[in-house]
Amino acid sequence: MDLGSFSRFARSFQKGEIIFSEFEPGDAFYLIQSGRVQLVKIIGDIEKTLDILHPSEMFGEMAILEDSPRSATALALDDVKVLEFNRANFEVLMMGNPQIALKLLKLFTKRIYDQKRRFMILTLEDPQAKIADVFLMLDETQPAIDRTTERREFKTTVDDIAHWAGMSGDQAKDIINHFVNQRRVEIYADRIIVKNINDFQRFVNSRRKKV
Predict the structure, then answer these.
(1) pLDDT by residue (tens digit) across 62-85?
(2) CA-wise closest residue to 85 among 27, 2, 36, 14
(3) What is the pLDDT of residues 100-124, one digit of tens each?
(4) 195 and 150 Cβ atoms separated by less than 8 Å
(5) With 0-12 CB in 10 A as exposed, 13-18 as middle and 19+ as buried, what is 168?
(6) In what residue span(s) does the Cyclic nucleotide-binding domain sit (predicted)?
(7) Which ranges in the chain belong to alpha helices (H)?
(8) Are 134 and 167 in contact (CB under 8 A)?
(9) CB–CB of 115/51 below 8 Å?
């Protein structure tokens, strides 16, 4: 995505600096040019990592789409360079660059889905259900797979699963090994196989609170 002409909107943050805080008003979103950004949210009394974003990813877009406070805190994990767009210059971007506008709208849609889906995982109280729901999330985003079978293969790692579930690698490993012992999961060097994805769906549904 060529955004060189928007260099006047560039901002920099040092490693460890808070870019914005949960609950504060927001009127801008950010597109990462370099470095990583961590999104964290307080759930109960515990700080949970929602995501770790990399260059070419965006965050804070709900400030443009909705008039609501920040739903999470954004923290610079490295020295970070971003492009900052507020409502005024966002309109300039959209009107003057139709191709970029279309790409941004697609990114908006995906980011909104990802954030809401990961929030659903984090609100589960049962750690085993969180891990199972991560597999369900991955299954929902897999293109062109055979859905006539209940077996699923995921090109992912235990550390990735732990990140999405908002828990330590050791805790996630213990839970996945428990699933292995139950013969519900198989672990290989480059992939994890869930033998019956519908079984995980029933398990998560039984653990999710009804509202």
Answers:
(1) 777 777 788 889 999 999 999 898
(2) 27
(3) 677 777 777 777 787 788 889 988 9
(4) yes
(5) exposed
(6) 11-111
(7) 62-65, 87-96, 98-122, 127-140, 158-165, 169-181, 197-207
(8) no
(9) yes
Instruction: Kindly give, in sequence order, each residue whose CB lies less than 8 Å from that of residue 208, ignoring residues fewer than 6 positions away.
Output: 120, 124, 129
**What's the pLDDT at 20?**
95
- The model's pLDDT over 25-49, given as tens digits with 9 standing for 90+, comes to 888 889 899 999 999 887 767 777 8
**Amino acid identity, residue 59?**
F
Rounded to two decimals, what is the model's pTM? 0.60
Domains along the chain? 4-121 (2.60.120.10), 127-207 (1.10.10.10)
Q: Quickly state the pLDDT bin for 144 (edges 50, 70, 90).
A: low
Concatenating the DSSP letter of every residue in 102-119 gives HHHHHHHHHHHHHHHHHH
* Contact in structure between 51 and 118 (CB atoms under 8 Å): yes
Distance of CA 191 to the CA centre of its chain: 20
